[in-house]
Amino acid sequence: MASATVTKATTIDAGEAAHFGAMAAEWWDPKGSSAMLHRLNPVRLRYLRERIDAHWHGDEAGFTPLQGKRVLDVGCGAGLLCEPLARLGASVTGLDAAAENIAVAQVHAAQSGLAIDYRTGSVEGLGDEKFDLVTSMEVIEHVIDPAAFIAGLAGALADDGLLVLSTPNRTALSRLALITVGEGFGQIPRGTHDWDKFLTPDALTALVEAEGLRVVDVRGLSFSVAKGFVLSDDTKLDYFVTAVRG
Questions:
Q1: What superfamily does domain 14-245 belong to in CATH?
Q2: Nearest to 194 by CA among 26, 39, 5, 19
Q3: What is the dihedral of CA 38, 43, 44, 49, to 10 degrees?
């Protein structure tokens, strides 16, 4: 499917889009520049499945808890999260600022036999479209206006919808782990993060609540030497926020 280009007002940072677009060819390489995302993905999916089952009271043992649901992944990259969400039964739309990422995502989805609606653009260009589940993982720290970005996500959320975000916390630990060590030693592409744009859980919660949503869960994403990335109560490195209407 051809990507649709959005030309309306946008929260996209052109420099950030170019940075991630340059990584497009390696998105699906677990040992390439997106290796960290591959290690994060299982934890993201574990958390998403937990929140999906809690919100819609589905069969926790079922394979397609998103059957009949529309899902929007904003800042989808080349589709690392979109594809497993489609396999959970959802009708998935993936939105990214970098056309290079969308091109790679479309090819990989076709090779995987998955029908995913990939689009180039920003959430502000969606118009009146509504989605049951809206996700945006490690994206808000890269936009030019976080409040407007959250407003766009909230505007795309259906009445009984579920919004799930993740982002690094603004702490000394996140600066050390993601920038000093992660970027300094080449585990993350240099220039990926700007610590000054990181948001604390309280700051992100305030942005979400300003759009009339209610935060129902905040969970930490920590790193264990023995287990790798794990869900925890410690939000100092990275964290998830889940919100609903009302």
A1: Vaccinia Virus protein VP39 (3.40.50.150)
A2: 19
A3: 130
Distance CA 216, CA 43 (A): 19
- List the chain domain ranges: 14-245
With contact defined as beta carbons under 8 Å apart, do 130 and 157 qualify? yes
More confident residue, 43 or 198: 43
Task: Report DSSP letters for 88-143, one per residue.
Answer: TT-EEEEEES-HHHHHHHHHHHHHTT---EEEES-GGG-TT--EEEEEEES-GGGS
CA distance 86 to 58: 17
Global pTM value: 0.88
As a whole number, the mean pLDDT across the chain is: 87
User: From CA 182, how far away is CA 238, in angstroms rounded?
Assistant: 14
CA distances from 185 to 112, 113, 133 (A): 33, 37, 36
Calpha distance 96→17 (Å, rounded): 8
Query: Of 52, 99, 49, whose CA–CA distance to 77 is shortest?
Result: 99
Rounded (5°) CA angle 230-232-235: 110
Average pLDDT on 89-116 reads 95
Is the distance from CB of 169 to CB of 236 less than 8 angstroms? yes
Q: What tens digit of pLDDT does each residue of 2-22 get?
A: 334 333 567 876 776 667 666
Over residues 64-71, the mean pLDDT reads: 97
Output the pLDDT for position 3: 38
